[in-house]
């Protein structure tokens, strides 16, 4: 068991995102709508009835302690102007399904929603099918002013959380002003957290661990692809650990990312990878800052700045003891074990600090990269 120093939280008031913190009335208790919480009854209809009973002008759904079973092919669909408040001892557990796409909680095309407390458990261990990879714990799309806090999410068929957009490529409506605070997302089949087209997202004081099952198997994957752009993302005081892929992947169409005071350790792939897919006509990831982070015991390079990543600042990080899988052994199959194929042709600029291996690698195609005041092995 690894131990870490207590992570210092960033004051919410300093993040530029403001959420009301009160418990709004009227208050609707899911038990009053027939939810049993006995670990056997399908409580989905009772939960939805409680949500629907909250006026669109505002209110709160209360979930007392209990073991609630949820039909994830229907999901709990939240609407605007509401607080979904779970007791710390409340669990929403997915009923096993053969569907490759499902949701425990859906937050789609709504505004001003808070989800607080409790545990969400997916059904990957009891999943009845073999295809698909889009089973989500919490799915936020095309919504504004959403806060998720103090929740544990685990065992989803796809991602613990998804923040993104609805709509066709180039016309998608992004999620805007989303905060994730004190969330633990672990043992999910694809990612702990995926971010698609979104703007003004803050992820803080959270842990994303143990992703394993289907690629990319990362702690956090920021990959809007051609659907749109991801802009102004802050990831602070988080831990990405023991993922079968990378701790974090950052792909094309990402503009403006700050990662500070995070821990990337014991991931089988890279601690952090930045790259873009040229065949998808993506804009290179641009405006990336990595500061005051720790990268240790990752299987490949601590941080790989690949593709045409542009305007990248790497400062005051500690990169120690990475590369237990670097270089690859003859006969290794990277596609079997992690998302990004290691490129033996990686070359680094002449600056000595840029070429420390296997702690930090920067491809020559990357531009406007500054590296300063880091600590290496």
From TrEMBL:
Top-level taxon: Bacteria
InterPro entries tied to this protein: Beta_helix, GH28_Enzymes, PbH1, Pectin_lyas_fold, Pectin_lyase_fold/virulence, RHGA/B-epi-like_pectate_lyase
Pfam families per record: Beta_helix (PF13229), Pect-lyase_RHGA_epim (PF12708)
Residue stretches making up the Right handed beta helix domain: 184-318
Matches recorded under SMART domains: PbH1
Chain ranges of the Rhamnogalacturonase A/B/Epimerase-like pectate lyase domain: 27-82
Residue ranges of the TM segments: none
Gene3D superfamilies xref list: Single-stranded right-handed beta-helix, Pectin lyase-like
The protein, known as: Right-handed parallel beta-helix repeat-containing protein
Protein source organism: Dyella humi
């Amino acid at each position: 068991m690894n131990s870490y120093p207590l992570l210092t939280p960033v004051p919410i008031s300093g993040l530029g995102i403001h959420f009301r913190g009160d418990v709004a009335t009227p208050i609707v208790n899911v038990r009053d709508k027939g939810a049993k919480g006995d670990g056997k009854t399908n409580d989905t209809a009772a939960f939805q009835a409680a949500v629907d009973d909250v006026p669109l002008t505002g209110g709160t759904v209360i979930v007392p302690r209990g073991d609630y079973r949820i039909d994830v092919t229907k999901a709990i669909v939240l609407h605007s102007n509401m607080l979904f408040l779970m007791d710390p001892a409340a669990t929403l557990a997915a009923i096993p399904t053969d569907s490759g796409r499902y949701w425990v909680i859906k937050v789609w095309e709504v505004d001003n929603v808070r989800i607080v407390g409790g545990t969400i458990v997916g059904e990957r261990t009891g999943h009845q099918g073999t295809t698909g990879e889009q089973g989500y714990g919490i799915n936020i799309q095309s919504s504004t002013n959403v806060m998720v806090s103090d929740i544990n999410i685990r065992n989803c068929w796809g991602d613990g959380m998804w923040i993104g957009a609805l709509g066709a490529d180039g016309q998608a409506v992004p999620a805007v002003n989303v905060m994730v605070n004190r969330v633990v997302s672990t043992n999910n089949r694809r990612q702990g957290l995926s971010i698609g087209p979104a703007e003004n997202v803050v992820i803080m004081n959270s842990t994303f661990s143990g992703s394993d099952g289907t690629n990319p198997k990362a702690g956090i994957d920021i990959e809007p692809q051609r659907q749109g752009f991801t802009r102004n993302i802050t990831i602070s005081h988080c831990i990405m650990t023991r993922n079968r892929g990378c701790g974090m992947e950052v792909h094309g169409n990402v503009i403006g990312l700050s990662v500070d005071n995070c821990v990337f350790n014991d991931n089988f792939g890279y601690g952090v990878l930045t790259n873009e897919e040229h065949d998808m006509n993506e804009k290179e990831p641009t405006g990336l800052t990595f500061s005051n982070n720790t990268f240790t015991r990752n299987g490949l390079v601590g941080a790989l700045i690949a593709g045409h990543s542009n305007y990248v600042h790497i400062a005051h990080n500690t990169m120690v003891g990475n590369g237990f899988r670097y270089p690859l052994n003859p006969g290794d199959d990277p596609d079997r074990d992690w998302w990004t194929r290691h490129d033996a042709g990686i070359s680094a600029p002449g600056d000595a600090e840029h070429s420390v291996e296997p702690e930090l690698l920067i491809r020559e195609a990357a531009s406007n990269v500054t590296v300063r005041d880091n600590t290496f092995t």
